[in-house]
TrEMBL record:
NCBIfam families: cas7_TM1809 (TIGR02582)
GO biological process terms, semicolon-separated: defense response to virus
InterPro entries per UniProt: CRISPR-assoc_RAMP_Csm3, CRISPR_Csm3_endoribonuclease, RAMP_III_fam
The protein, known as: CRISPR system Cms endoribonuclease Csm3
Keywords: Antiviral defense, Endonuclease, Hydrolase, Nuclease, RNA-binding
Organism, as annotated: Chondromyces crocatus
Lineage: superkingdom: Bacteria
UniProt keyword Oxidoreductase, yes or no: no
Family indicated by similarity: Belongs to the CRISPR-associated Csm3 family.
């Protein structure tokens, strides 16, 4: 099945840690003294980063909680996996693993978030057990004997800045490849959809694919489908600011401030004619307001942390 690309939309910005952040990595081959909980590191740069899979997974998890949806047990001790209702817009956005030949490709790519040049320089001055990170001692207390078991956790310190990028694919099945043989009927009261099919050469499409075709055609006409996807992505970034990235969020780890540069895109014609990406014009007023709101939230805490860094560095 061939999807026709309408445009790619880019959300870029900076993630700044407001508290120590830990995304776990492998401990194999590292002489880390008493450290049992190491952060993930870039294999070539030997510096901490936030994998795109961690950022994407956290966004999807928080959005599915917001909607109260979940999938079946995923194995390996996971009681509930990603939602797998193909008609739900979140599943259509993040995709669905192939199951009985009915998989659905993701429309969003989340790239690894790497340290900025300034943060790389600043963290390079740290003199910790491992480069560019801090260590935090913790203790687990036996509730009966009061005995303490010590452990040391490696974290990316507060004030670290990382650049991130989300890429949204806006696409459609060309009309000449689709012959709709029955319509999608959605009951307003229940939101339940019928199971119509469409015929692509040698293949039948279930209801979810028809919804994809319909929403893509609306995207081409007035940006409706694209703006809906952007609304979900902005909501996901907003949720992350009120939650955490990485492990131990309930103990204060992983609080971040997100600052967006804006929304840009390249259309199909831009690629064919070699034009660079440019600001997305005609963005819904509501979405522009969401970008501003995300940028403003947590700004005071961020400025307090950044203002304290020169004094901390001078004391070393």
């Amino acid at each position: 099945m061939t999807w026709g690309m309408l445009e790619k939309v880019f959300l870029r910005g900076t993630i700044t840690t407001l508290t120590g952040l830990r995304v776990g990595g492998s401990e194999q081959g590292l002489d880390a003294a008493a450290l049992e909980n190491l952060v993930v590191r870039h294999a070539l740069l030997d510096e901490p980063y936030i994998p795109g899979s961690s950022l994407r997974g956290r966004m999807r998890c928080l959005l599915e909680r917001l909607q109260g949806i979940a999938g079946p047990p995923a194995g390996d001790g996971i009681g509930f996996g990603p939602a797998d209702d193909p008609v739900h817009p979140l599943v259509q956005l993040f995709g669905m693993a192939s199951k009985d030949g009915a998989g659905m490709p993701s429309r969003v790519m989340v790239r690894d978030a790497l340290l900025t040049a300034e943060s790389r320089k600043r963290l390079g001055r740290l003199r910790g057990v491992l480069p560019m990170t801090e260590t935090k001692a913790e203790a687990m207390i036996d509730r009966v004997t009061a005995a303490a078991t010590a452990r040391t956790v490696e974290r990316l310190p507060a004030g670290a800045e990382l650049r991130f990028e989300l890429v949204l694919d806006v696409r459609a099945l060309p009309e000449r490849q689709v012959a709709v043989v029955s319509e999608v009927h959605v009951a307003e009261a229940t939101g339940a959809a019928a199971e119509p099919t469409a015929q692509v050469p040698g293949q039948a499409l279930p209801a979810a694919w028809l919804l994809e075709v319909q929403r893509a055609s609306r995207s081409e006409e007035n940006g409706w489908g694209r703006d809906e996807d952007l609304r979900w992505l902005l909501t996901g970034l907003d949720l992350i600011q009120d939650d955490a990235i990485g492990g131990h969020g309930s103990r204060g780890y992983g609080r971040v401030k997100i600052r967006l540069d804006g929304v840009t895109h390249r259309t199909r014609d831009d690629y064919l004619q070699g034009r660079p990406e440019h600001a997305l014009e005609g963005l819904a007023e509501e979405l522009s307001a969401r970008v501003k709101d995300i940028n403003q939230r947590g700004e005071r805490e961020l400025q307090e942390i950044l203002a304290s860094l020169p004094a901390i560095e001078a004391s070393r």
